[in-house]
Design a protein that fits this description.
There is one protein chain. The protein has about 375 residues and is α+β, with helices and mostly antiparallel strands. The chain folds into 2 domains: about 1-125 and about 345-375, Immunoglobulin-like (Sandwich), CATH 2.60.40.2250; about 130-330, C8orf32 fold, CATH 3.10.620.30. Helix content is about 25%, strand content about 30%. It has 9 helices and 17 strands. It has helices at about 1-20, 140-145, 160-170, 175-190, 210-215, 220-235, 280, 295-300, 310-315, and strands spanning about 45-55, 60-70, 75-85, 90-95, 100-105, 115-125, 125-130, 195, 220, 240-245, 260-270, 270-275, 320, 325-330, 350-355, 360, 365-375. Strands 4-5-2-15-16 form a 5-stranded antiparallel β-sheet, with no helix packed on it. A 4-stranded antiparallel β-sheet has the order 3-6-1-17, with no helix packed on it. Strands 12-11-10-14 form a 4-stranded antiparallel β-sheet, covered by helices on one side.
């Protein structure tokens, strides 16, 4: 075990060195380097079962399935012993952001239900970026050209005059990208509340929307990160949203879906890609009342079930990530491979399914279940 950990850290350090030289590389983030006097990076190992069930309507002629796949390029996680069970031939493709995606299709299927299962073990490390504003510098013209994809809007991550004006008000004359990103992070924390705090009056949007989050000042993780990303991009800070899932301790070994979670990354020249998780940080940004209506929802929103006023946690989630998660994909408005018949896919947090050229809806058309057991 000792030898395995040493090799793993060496791989991470080499990967980080390469990543800092390639601004647009999707794997250019990972655990921070341990320093003398600093506590060791936390890590955890999970045995995972990822199941997709597709309900096939009568008379369907062609079923196409794109199923979220654990990303090997994420330097914070190592995937091994990956197995796939599927009723039809499958292959692993890459989408427009470079994410690995499991793809299969069925012509004139006789089954009323198709089941695909991914089983794997993931070793996940805490991410500690050690973000240092003194090392950051503004984007150069070449940086801007190489990262253009992460400076323009997506369908629901809008950049309009109102967003630009608000971003200017928040950031002011700050030109350091790390300090500007932190100003936006703090503004979102002080002006938006996660919907689970008051589920009777607050709701999330179904698509992850900047506009919704700004108007109603609430939402889920994708709403939070959409708003933050819009504001960052409006100030010329390249940003992107990462989709994954938490492994919540109370569900260890239970037949309970882990749903999905998302966080964001921004790019600062001289530093690299920096993660943050402003939506989870919101559960530690001040006290709020817990009741029978919200206590379970709040507890299940964070990675380890904790919540409540904790300034250290708020600071931690700017530049760092806990180890109880897995990465499925990066980006919005995805073009899949083979190309889907429908519009760009908003995000691939779970799966995307088309039947006879039309998007098949989640819940009524398919369900995903993610379960796990943690190794000790």
């Amino acid at each position: 075990m000792r030898k395995s950990l040493t090799v793993s850290r060496l791989v991470v350090l080499i990967g980080l060195s390469i990543a800092l030289l390639i601004p647009g590389w999707s794997a250019s983030y990972g655990p921070g380097v341990e320093k003398e006097g600093v506590r060791p990076l936390r890590s955890a190992i999970f045995d995972v079962r990822h199941e997709l069930k597709v309900m096939v309507p009568e008379g369907a002629k062609r079923v196409r399935i794109w199923f979220a796949f654990p990303q090997e390029e994420d330097l914070a996680q190592q995937v091994r012993d990956l197995r796939v069970e599927a009723p039809y031939p499958y292959r692993v493709e890459r989408d427009s952001e470079g994410n690995r995606v499991l793809y299969l299709e069925a012509e004139n299927p006789n089954e009323k239900e198709l089941t695909v299962v991914e089983s794997f073990t993931v070793s996940r490390s805490e991410v500690r970026s050690g973000v240092d504003p003194s090392k950051a510098r503004p984007l150069s013209d070449s940086d801007r050209a190489g990262l253009e994809r992460y400076l323009r809007p997506d369908k629901y991550v809008v950049i309009d005059d109102s967003i630009r004006q608000l971003a200017d008000q928040i950031v002011g004359d700050e030109t350091n990208p790390v300090l500007a990103a932190r100003k936006i992070y703090d503004w979102v924390l002080h002006n938006v509340d996660y919907w689970v705090k008051d589920p009777k009056t607050k709701k999330a949007s179904p698509v992850g929307s900047t506009t919704y989050c700004l108007i109603f000042r609430t939402g889920n993780c994708t709403d939070f990160e959409s708003l933050w990303t819009s504001l960052a991009r409006a100030k010329g800070i390249p940003a992107r949203i990462v989709y994954g899932s938490f492994f919540k301790p109370e569900f260890d070994g239970q037949n309970q879906d882990q749903s999905y979670h998302c966080w964001a990354q921004f790019y600062a020249p001289g530093v690299g890609w920096v993660p943050h998780d402003v939506s989870v940080a919101d559960l530690y940004a001040g006290d709020f009342a817990t009741t029978p209506d919200n206590e379970a929802l709040v507890r299940r929103t964070t990675s380890d079930g904790t919540y409540g006023s904790d300034p250290e946690r708020v600071n931690y989630y700017f530049g760092n990530l806990d180890e109880r998660r897995v990465t499925w994909s990066i980006g919005r408005d995805l073009i899949l491979s083979p190309r889907q018949d429908g519009d760009p896919v908003n995000a691939l947090a779970k799966a995307y399914v088309e039947i006879d050229g039309k998007a098949h809806p989640e819940t009524k058309g398919w369900v995903r279940k993610l379960t796990f057991r943690e190794r000790t």
